[in-house]
Give the backbone structure.
Amino acid sequence: MILAAGAVMSPHLLMRSGIGPAAELARHGIALLHDAPEVGENLADHLDITVMSCTRGREPIGLAPASCRAACGPPGALPPGAWAS
């Protein structure tokens, strides 16, 4: 199973479904499906910074321009390795 609901909502959904720390689930009256004490632990913010620069020809470089083009273009428009350009 792949659950991709973000750092906060993934543990929330798992725990609401009965997968998580047994004591925590019992405290909230949620039936235990699987005791997984690591669910909801070791969370950290994933800070991000976007840096964009222009070459002498005024062509922007970086991920942001490629992401913008991909968002406005057909599916799969983001070229492989765009993050490194």
Residues 6-16 form the longest helix (11 residues).
